[in-house]
Amino acid sequence: QVQLVESGGGLVQAGGSLRLSCAASGKISSINAMGWYRQAPGKQRELVATVIGGGSTIYADSVKGRFTISRDNAKNMVYLQMNSLKPEDTALYYCKYLWIWGQGTRVTVSS
Q: Which residue, 28, 16, 17, is CA-closest to 77?
């Protein structure tokens, strides 16, 4: 049974940076995508970034050039480096593998 645990969230001022981590336990295939999603209060959950087998990445337009997703298959980890954070990035950030979700880590960006 795969489990995902996110960490690294917190409170940061606008313009600051955070690095989120997602640790996966259980059997993970490197060919399957892993991604980060977020859900802001009163809004639907949305894709932030995903990395697929071979290392190809996809980003939401709103984070392109500011966020970077990376993956360490040997450690079953996926990361999200977030730079130039904006108040609109405030949300609960979730890691996803196949149909499995983590519990989320909260990011709050103050103006």
A: 28
